[in-house]
Design goal:
Elements: H1 2-30, H2 37-68, H3 70-93, H4 100-106, H5 110-142
């Protein structure tokens, strides 16, 4: 399985490099003053293709991995469920502390303010859990 993944990534990388090289040669051939929008659009198309391929592969390979290792998948799904639950808890704790005038002045809505607050709470909790896990790992290594 790992060999197939490496071959797929290698093939995709080579193809994208060749396409990007073609567009770079076109830009160098035309010169800085004659670079047209159509040549530059080619760069964007390559970036869009690379992003799309990356997105598909980022979704595809974890699904394949889940089916090849079901025990590891259960642990991953539990962690993912905990992250989603934590988001809903953070969203429930977040409030809008701005007055309507302040919201209008900042050109945001009350819901945007709540979402930003939820994002901050979520980030703080994840950061705190990361620090606690580092401390736990350090202390557990002392006793081993």
């Amino acid at each position: 399985m790992d060999n197939i993944i490496k071959k797929v990534f290698y093939a995709v990388s080579v193809i994208l490099i060749l396409i990007a090289t073609f567009y770079q040669i076109a830009v160098l051939y035309q010169g800085d003053d004659l670079v047209t929008e159509s040549v530059l659009n080619g760069y964007f198309y390559v970036a869009y293709i690379a992003f799309g391929i990356s997105f598909v592969l980022a979704l595809l390979f974890p699904v394949i991995q889940i089916f090849s290792n079901p025990k590891g998948a259960i642990r991953t799904l539990i962690i993912l469920a905990a992250a989603v639950i934590l988001w809903f808890v953070a969203k429930g704790l977040a409030t809008n502390t701005f007055t309507p005038e302040e919201l209008e002045l900042k050109k945001i809505t009350a819901e945007t303010s709540v979402m930003v607050g939820a994002g901050l709470i979520y980030t703080y909790v994840i950061f705190g859990l990361a620090i606690l896990s580092i401390i736990y790992a350090s202390i557990s290594n002392l006793f081993k």
